[in-house]
Design a protein that fits this description.
The chain has 102 residues and is α+β, with helices and mostly antiparallel strands. The protein has a single domain, classed as Winged helix-like DNA-binding domain superfamily/Winged helix DNA-binding domain (Arc Repressor Mutant, subunit A, Orthogonal Bundle). The chain is 57% helix and 18% strand. It has five helices and three strands; from the N terminus they run ααβααββα. The chain has a three-stranded antiparallel β-sheet. Strand 2 and strand 3 form a beta hairpin.
Length: 102
């Protein structure tokens, strides 16, 4: 096991709430805030805080619009977010492969 891999994990993504958000957005081209909230069973405030952190890192894009005269907030992964998530998953894969008994 190479212990040098662990510090390379992206701390922004590694937090379980943000990892769940990144995973959900990686699997869908776009998700509404309410869809994310319900899918991940988060409170509005918790989800907002995590999305804000991911947005500040440039990993998530947030768009506000109206649908049927109601406000709609949609989230998508940015190109940088997709790249960072792919790197994170690749690093996790390396860690898992190294920890498997031979």
């Amino acid at each position: 096991m190479n212990p040098d891999l662990f510090p390379q994990l992206n701390r922004v993504i590694h937090e379980k709430g943000r990892l769940a958000i990144m995973s959900a957005l990686a699997a869908a081209p776009e998700l509404a805030f309410t869809e994310l909230r319900d899918l991940l069973d988060m409170t509005d405030g918790n989800l907002t805080t995590h999305i804000r952190t991911l947005q500040q890192e440039g990993f998530v894009s947030v768009a506000k619009s109206y649908q049927n005269n109601r406000p709609l907030t949609s989230c998508t992964l940015t190109a940088a977010g997709r790249k960072a998530f792919a790197q994170y998953i690749d690093l996790l894969d390396q860690i898992v492969r190294q920890s498997k008994p031979k």
